[in-house]
Design goal:
This protein is of the alpha+beta class. It is globular and about 85 Å long. The two termini are about 20 Å apart.
Amino acid sequence: MSETAHKPIFRGDYRVPAYLVHHFDLDFQIYEGRTRVTSKIDFYKNPVSAGDSDLALDGENLTLVAISLNGVSLDRTAYVVDDHSLTLKNPPSLGTLSIVVDISPETNTTLEGLYVSDPIYCTQCESHGFRRITYFLDRPDVMTAYTVRVEADAGKCPVLLSNGNCVERGAASASRHYAIWNDPFKKPSYLFALVAGKLDHIHDTFVTASGRNVDLYIYTEYGFTGQCHWAMASLKNAMRWDEQHYGREYDLDLFNIVAVSSFNMGAMENKSLNIFNTSTVYASTETTSDGAFVRVESVVAHEYFHNWTGDRITCRDWFQLTLKEGLTVFRDQCFSGDMHSPVVQRIDDVETLRTAQFPEDAGPMAHPIRPESYIAMDNFYTATVYEKGAEVIRMMRTLLGDKLYRRATDLYFERFDGQAVTCDDFVQCMQDASDTDMSQFMLWYSQPGTPMVKARGEYDAAKCEYTLNLTQSFPTQADNKPVLIPVIAALFASDGTQMTLNERGDIETALRFNEREQKFVFTNIRRKPVHSLFRDFSAPVNFESGLDGDELRLLMRHDTDGFNRYEAANIIRKTFMVDRLNGRPVASDDIIDAIKEALCDTKIDDAFRTSMISIPFQGVLEQLFDRPDPVKIALEILKVQREIGIALKDDLLSVYHDRAARETSAGFPSAEEISARMLKNFTLEYLHRIGDETTLHLSIAQYKSAANMSDRITALSFLCDTDHPFREEALDDFYRRFSHDKLIIDKWFAVQAEAMRDDIFEKLEALQRHPAFDIKNPNRARSLYLAFVGSPLYFHEKGGRGYDFHSAAILTIDEFNPQIAARFMKPFQNWKKYVEPYSSLMRHRLERIASKSNLSPNLREIVGKYLA
């Protein structure tokens, strides 16, 4: 590994490309064991680039066969080749460079560039995968039009796909055929896509708002087209939603999705040819849980939305990744809320932020949503860039209001269509469309860390004034400047009625909080109020409301903002759990009564009811302690769940049996059905924690009678915790039923890996040896290793066996797929915060990893940051 592979790249060092490309022709000759790639680059000197420069092209793991300039073969002295580039010396100001390389997709285990996935040829080029295909200016600010010819054996690869429109196809010989694709829209190399193989498909059409017909295809392995109809329906819903909410029509007459089983990410938005992990396409009632249905819908929408926020307008450099990802996550969150429950979607999004991104902000990988440097760009596809980036977009919409936000996004699409731009360009559109000064808001792009906001209210009865005192700080980033924080606020009277805030009769307002300490005065407030702040979680902050238990209970019962009703209950339960964990004697009666009240509240939908009866997650509770004890927290959660289950057994059984008796449709699950099953299976979890024969047989009966995957896999997961003889019978039955379907067998591995059993390490070793286990398949690896680390009791086993098991897997995976290996490091990120012996045990495993020679740049960067 060369030293340049470990050299940091800094945002401040950005320079415009010295050369640009008029047009790019590619020809792929696919043979078993070798693919020959011939490229023709029509390049020209960038007029805004200063001085003379060589033409440096990126390239990795390529075998150079031939190179010519303007039709003349080049002498070896005219260019320089190393492990990462090909540099043309003293090039003309414009010309045509032709390059022939050989690559081996069949042996490409990184799943970047062109590789083979059971046995489909496919590409993954974001962020730096294209350089594994041929030599080129592999950077997002070099955009050009592509013409691609693909040739392969007609029997082995009857389907040949690339970006854009197919303009020609035919026979190349007696056994081979070809297809030529032209993409009329300029794009960077990371959006290039190619697929070749034996594929079946489903077809549908969509009529755009302007009346154009668009052909929609979803390609997959034979035998799985029946599981693609939900994805197709989700695609059409997303296309319609984008027209209605952003005025964006699809711009071509063809849109293709291809599902492959070996894929590092969820999906990729390549222009007009989206390539998906099968886990984010396949869905059927028998094989797919409700949560997976929702995920398929969300990811399909996310990748489609990228057509405008990522493809038509892309990022100038990789530091601007949140420009497309934060914006598109925000768009898919809004879409998912509209398709289901906006309140529950918001709760889920916030809990994801709190459990994944807040620890990132407080740990060694803390970085702004626009990072300042990286060694391996793949390491920065993070919750900060995605989820916190989405919250930053949401704050801008809150500050501007819906109407001005829409005007600003329209201006963005109009001003920058077909360009590679920056986060500053996007925010400038917000400013220009609304005449709002966004200079202070830009600190959200440059400062890491999660703000801590504290509130204190003072009521002056004589003046009928309520003064709200707010302070903000950054506990882990003391040098940060105060940021502009939108605080959506309301006031409630002691009887639960919402109070008017001004002469206009507004009952809610958005406060612009932009100083370290700031006061907001509400006048003509004739009764002492209770403040409801950060409604709908209006900013990604940690927040201390300053409210007492009675005031929180008032909001829990009467707040008109669904998220803040949940949040009030959540704060009460977090306080209760912290007191218990700190050894303070607190009775559980109030918590149990509140959960019973929510459980029996028929005025709220089942999904929201499920949120209201939950207790805080492990990851959330760990953040409430300076030195958390992960095992102690996990055991306390189980203990409280058991207490709730025992105290509310009759109520839980009543709700469980009521929901179990309801008929479900044979088609796709409706939002109501998903909500009902969510509540039913959540009550089963509380009942399962009791651990008696009655509740055990509920899981057995549910497994035997399950008509859908949500019920089946939930019951199986609870059975895996037990020693009941039916456990093995159920596992064998599940495997026999679904052994033909890789995604479902992933679930089979996962429920065993996350089981709470004292013999878990023996089970894990056996699962690793199972014939169906393939560590080189990312989905299968995740189903074992990441499922296991989700079980804190055993991942944090005091002898360090959990850390040994996971770190050994990381080192093995790094040998063939560094991107996945680096992502598997995340459970170690906050090792310094844990109490002993966990902190030292984790450090020792990190040092052991760091001591290994030939670590990938991806893994070495992560381990180095963790140990720094």
